[in-house]
Write a structure and sequence with these properties.
The protein is mainly alpha-helical. It has 21 helices and five strands. Helix 4 crosses helix 19 and helix 15 packs across helix 20.
Length: 542
């Protein structure tokens, strides 16, 4: 199935799914189009881990129940879970939920643990069968999100998946439908992870320290050995300024994932050197994987946290006294952007809590931020669409060219979508966005409530991961990295709205949360109602 076939009206469903899969795997994506959820299988595994943490006193009953509820929501609407397994799993988790606990290694725990092993092996194959049988009842957004999340949770890198799906959709000469593509990636995902040799080089030699107890790692290569290894594996040594390197063997799904895993190992090593020897160890910004064709960047990537209001309101450098309602949260938020996973969840949740929690109800900050994000979603999506429509050959393009205010642009696009006056010649990602907004505008109360629930799940997962790290010292929790991947862009979007409301409208963060709650409860039925949920001035798009 190549892209020209996807563009035909008869394949609009598969076009939508394909467009979203490619969006989800892009190296950078705006928060309102990002993948907010983890996969069903990982959500169930997270429940099992939360059960153990609950028994150890690391997570409270409310946190365990939140994990169970999130897993039940994903399972209930997922064709990748066969009906008999779905019924057994729901019965088990519902029973545990009614008792407000899932006893670690108890009967209900063991039922869920056995079922998730079965699902792991058959999940994508079940999705392929469901798509082949017809798309009735399976929305394209749900399909794309479920498939993408499962693949990322399996450990594939976004870069590998983007290239794989790009080839299948745009370049493969074989005429195949979406179900056959899912079968193909299911076969690839069923393969065991491979061993990769990864070379991480350093600009200075790790000479043996004068301090007792430190020796160079066993897999250290001297500069000449690094050059020989690079040459042997057909890499250029030109412009590689190094004084040695570590040759690591990791087991991962693909070369980019292997490079990232090696970088994490080096980060741990560097942290131990820093705290024990007071010496900084920094590798070169790229690694070499034996099976890859070119070096792979291991510079810590941005997680998509963007608080543009700080720049827009000229508050990057504080010339005057800082605002204690929001400025400390911006500092706390910084680790969420690019620090190690443990530091990221700690700083990210601390920022949320400082803005929106109350002394006796800290977890409620997740729901409050989710409500602000849900109210921000329509304006962000409509504003992005407005700039795409401005470049299109349609009557609305001329109207948009004269508009400078994002609020006015969003309102015009909302009206056009509601009236069915958007062109069908837009690129597939924009056509998918139009369909999303069409559904929101037709039923804003239910659709925005659904968005709020998904965002709240992401933030509550971040809270659980923070507790596992800070109270349990668990830096390798199974959903830690997935939690950062899904929550970080949403945290940035929500904090951006809070910061803007504070700097421009002088609103306290809880005042904005109150406004968002009222807006979702009293939303009107006109297209413009979705544009001004946080107020015409506050609901800007970053």
């Amino acid at each position: 199935m190549r892209i020209q076939n996807l563009l035909s009206p008869v394949n609009s469903y598969e076009q939508h799914v394909a467009a979203r899969l490619l969006e989800f795997f892009k190296p950078s994506i705006h928060w309102n189009r990002a993948l907010w959820n983890i996969g069903t299988v990982l959500a169930i595994r997270e429940v099992l881990e939360a059960s153990e943490a609950h028994r150890a006193g690391i997570l409270g009953p409310e946190s365990l129940q939140a994990a169970i509820s999130a897993a039940l929501r994903l399972t209930g609407q997922d064709p990748g879970v066969p009906k008999p397994a779905k019924q057994a799993l729901q019965q088990s988790l519902n029973k545990a939920g009614s008792k407000n606990q899932l006893r670690f290694e108890g009967l209900e725990y063991r039922i869920a643990a056995d079922l998730v092993k079965q699902l792991e092996a058959s999940y994508l194959a079940s999705w392929a069968q469901a798509i082949a049988a017809g798309q009735e009842g399976i929305g394209p957004e749900r399909a794309a999100r479920a498939i993408a999340a499962h693949l990322l949770d399996k450990g594939f890198s976004p870069g590998y998946l983007h290239r794989w799906w790009t080839y299948q959709i745009k370049h493969d000469p074989t005429e195949r439908g979406l179900s056959l593509m899912v079968e193909a990636i299911a076969a690839r995902a069923s393969e065991p992870p491979r061993e990769f040799d990864v070379l991480v080089a350093f600009p200075s030699r790790l000479a043996a320290s004068e301090k007792k107890g430190f020796t160079v790692p066993k897999r250290w290569l001297e500069a000449s050995e690094v050059s020989a290894w690079l040459t042997k594996h057909s890499f250029s040594v030109e412009d590689v300024k190094q004084q040695g390197g570590l040759l690591l063997t990791v087991t991962e799904q693909d070369a980019e994932a292997a490079a990232a895993a090696a970088a994490e190992i080096v980060d741990v090593f560097a942290a131990r050197v820093l705290v024990s020897l007071n010496k900084e160890v920094r590798p070169l910004p790229q690694a070499w994987v034996a099976s890859a064709k070119s070096p792979i960047s291991i510079s810590r990537a941005s997680r998509g946290v963007h608080v543009g209001a700080v720049h827009r309101e000229n508050r990057v450098w504080l010339e005057s006294e800082r605002d204690d309602a929001v400025d400390p949260a911006i500092e706390l938020l910084a680790p969420l952007q690019s620090s190690s996973p443990a530091a990221a969840v700690a700083g990210g949740w601390a920022a949320i809590e400082s803005l929106l929690s109350e002394p006796d109800n800290r977890a409620a900050a997740a729901d409050r931020l989710a409500t602000i994000v849900a109210c921000s979603f329509p304006r962000a999506e409509l504003t992005m669409l407005s700039y795409s429509l401005e470049k299109s050959e349609s009557p609305i393009a001329a109207q948009l060219k004269g508009m400078e205010e994002n609020r006015d642009r969003a309102a015009l696009v909302a009206q056009a979508i509601a009236e069915g006056n958007t062109p069908n010649t837009l690129r597939p990602p924009e056509l998918a966005a139009v369909e999303r907004m069409k559904a929101v505008l037709a039923n804003p109360t239910d659709k925005l409530a659904d968005i709020q629930v998904h965002a709240a799940d992401a933030f509550r997962r971040l809270y659980r991961q923070r507790n596992l790290v800070l109270h349990g010292g668990k830096t390798s929790a199974i959903a830690l990295r997935a939690s950062l991947r899904t929550a970080a862009p949403l945290v940035g979007a929500g904090v951006d709205r809070i910061v803007h409301a504070r700097y421009v409208d002088k609103l306290h963060p809880l005042e904005l949360a109150a406004r968002a709650n009222i807006a979702l409860g009293m939303i009107g039925s006109t297209p413009s109602a979705c544009v001004d949920l946080l107020g015409a001035r506050t609901a800007v798009s970053s």
